[in-house]
Design goal:
Order of helices and strands: HHHEEHHEEEHHEHHEEHEEHHEEH
Enzyme class: transferase
Organism: Rhodoplanes serenus
Radius of gyration: 40 Å
CATH architecture of the largest domain: 2-Layer Sandwich
Number of helices: 13
InterPro entries: BphY/WalK/GraS-like (IPR050351), HATPase_C_sf (IPR036890), HATPase_dom (IPR003594), His_kinase_dom (IPR005467), HisK_dim/P_dom (IPR003661), HisK_dim/P_sf (IPR036097), Sig_transdc_His_kin-like_C (IPR004358)
Subcellular location: Cell membrane
Shape: elongated
CATH class of the largest domain: Alpha Beta
CATH superfamily of the largest domain: Histidine kinase-like ATPase, C-terminal domain
Helix content: 40-55%
Catalytic activity: ATP + protein L-histidine = ADP + protein N-phospho-L-histidine
Number of domains: 4
Distance between the termini: 94 Å
CATH topology of the largest domain: Heat Shock Protein 90
Number of strands: 12
Structural class: alpha+beta
């Protein structure tokens, strides 16, 4: 439907330009004779001795032209060669762009960069105003989205993968917007290509992509860990139903293996459920007071049978007084049991696992520092950063032989995160391993008769 809005004639800008230029030359014709007469008088009087008169006349003419541009000619310079609409810069655009947290680039429809913020400069260090975007960002999908948005009216979206300086995933959104108009500018119908800017915004998808990958890896690992004992159980059942049906000795041995595999599956499922429950409430800090010395004595007493079977001595060095932290007692018991049991399983060759607790002042105040050291074969340094990942094992065969699920240290990490604690692991091949837990202290008190009686019991 044709617009009823009155539009200016296409010849009007040309008329204004011609009028402005004519007015300027009129001013110049008036100024130059006066300037020449003034120079002649000055030379006759000896005031400008040694200065070429032509140079002085040229300077006066230049000043006249500059005056012409400031008064009448300036109006012509502010008019676009295309349609007579003024092209002005709005400082608000720069302020808004620089204040955004995501990388943002403002483009002309031609692809020239008009403005960008600091985050965009980090994404594409070669960005520069008045230069094509393709000089700094060579991703074909983004450049194609810019071309489509320049010709269309709807935003264009495209995903971009960046390999350096680090692997990151981005979603680029290219949206055409109305070019800012000066105050009092006439409104227009629609957004013509010459009247628009393109705003390119980059949203960081890296956390989402990594989370999706972790979920895929977790499902794959959990399925594999469950499939292994299930396959073993299925094989032994077939054997017992066939060749070993009448072999009492083989039947007894196979049933023992099946029981061990069923126990492994039960532990794995229990660890998965525990990890899920802890993750659901990881942001809820437990507040019940837990006396740490008594808790560690309970842990070491409960693991003495396993230590005896493996020929390992557990040595616990408690402090003189009581140390109280805020926490969930059952979760803390689970965390320290996992750490001590790791020392018994993988450090049995050293014949000794040592526990110690001390109180120190850290960045967040007073902390309880619990150390668990074994003297086993140790861990290679390349494995240390990943030991708390789900299903990660430094030695897969040894872990499975020891009945591990690959979730023990992941559970410890999540439990300590919920308690605002920290876990540090130090180890080297042949030097054993040291696990250090730090937990914020609520109170430190001398030992009471009640605590002495409880520890004696």
């Amino acid at each position: 439907m044709p617009s009823t809005e009155e539009r200016p004639s296409g010849r009007e800008p040309l008329r204004r330009r011609i009028a402005a230029v004519a007015d300027g030359w009129s001013r110049l014709r008036l100024v130059l004779p006066v300037a020449v007469l003034a120079v002649g008088v000055a030379v006759a009087a000896g005031e400008l001795r040694g200065v070429p008169a032509a140079l002085i006349v040229a300077a006066i003419a230049a000043a006249a032209v500059a005056d012409m541009r400031r008064s009448g000619g300036g109006k012509a310079a502010a008019v676009s060669d295309v349609d007579g609409q003024p092209e002005t810069d709005d400082p608000l655009v720069d302020v808004v762009v620089s204040g955004l947290a995501d990388p943002v680039i403002v483009l002309e429809p031609s692809g020239l960069v008009r403005a960008f913020n600091r985050r965009a400069a980090e994404l594409a260090p070669a960005l520069a105003t008045a230069r094509p975007l393709s000089f700094a960002l060579r991703h074909p999908g983004v450049l194609d989205a810019v071309r489509k948005a320049a010709e269309g009216t709807a935003p264009e979206r495209v995903e971009m993968f960046q390999r350096v300086p680090a692997e990151r995933w981005w979603e680029a959104v290219v949206a055409p917007v109305q070019r800012p108009r000066p105050a009092g500018g006439a409104a227009r119908v629609g957004i013509a290509r010459r009247d628009r800017l393109l705003v390119v915004t980059f949203h960081d998808l890296t956390p989402l992509r990594r989370s999706e990958q972790m979920r895929v890896d977790f499902i794959a690992n959990a399925s594999h860990e469950l499939r292994t004992p299930l396959a073993s159980l299925s094989g032994f059942i077939d054997t017992l139903q066939g060749p070993a049906r009448a072999d009492a000795a083989a039947r007894e041995r196979f049933l023992g293996i099946m029981k061990a595999q069923a126990g492994r599956m039960a532990r794995l499922i229990d660890d998965l459920l525990s990890l899920s429950r802890i993750e659901l409430k990881v942001h809820i800090r437990p507040e019940s007071p837990v006396e740490l010395v008594l808790l560690l004595r309970q842990v070491t007493d409960g693991l003495q049978p396993i230590a005896g079977e493996r020929g390992v001595v557990i040595v616990f060095e408690p402090p003189d007084g009581a140390v109280t932290v805020a926490g969930d007692r059952d979760e803390l018991v689970r965390a320290f049991e996992n750490l001590v049991e790791n020392g018994l399983k993988y450090g049995a060759s050293g014949g000794r696992v040592e526990l110690a607790i001390a109180c120190e002042t850290g960045p967040q105040g007073r902390e309880a520092v619990v150390s668990i050291r074994d003297y086993g074969p140790g861990i290679a340094p390349e494995h240390l950063p990943r030991l708390t990942e789900r299903f990660y094992r430094a030695d897969v065969a040894e872990s499975r032989a020891q009945g591990g699920t690959g979730l023990g240290l992941a559970l410890v990490k999540h439990i300590l995160q919920r308690h605002r604690g920290r876990l540090a692991i130090d180890s080297a091949p042949g030097a054993g391993a040291l696990f250090t837990v730090r937990l914020p202290i609520v109170t430190e008190t001398p030992p009471t008769r009640e605590s002495d009686a409880a520890s004696a019991a």
